[in-house]
Specification:
With 71 residues, the protein is an alpha+beta fold. It has one domain. It contains three helices and two strands.
Length: 71
């Protein structure tokens, strides 16, 4: 159990998920940018991109509460 779960005696999950910036894929696959596409090289469809752009993220804090504690 995490430190918070032990401290409060209930399950606590604190999760952050970051998503890639929406323009990265569009820029990488746009023929005007001249980036060689993986299907042209290996046929696998995989490649690695590094970008310095803001990425949207969401944070979810979830705790288990017993019904008797809701009132």
């Amino acid at each position: 159990m995490t430190e918070l779960s032990l401290k409060y005696g209930r399950m606590v999950n604190n999760i952050t998920a970051a998503m890639p910036h929406g323009g990265i894929i569009a820029a990488a696959t746009d023929p005007r940018n001249g980036i060689r596409q993986p299907v042209d090289v290996t046929g696998e469809g995989n490649f690695e991109i590094e970008a310095s752009v803001p990425s949207p993220a969401i944070n979810v804090l979830w705790i288990h509460k017993y019904p008797r504690r809701l009132v």
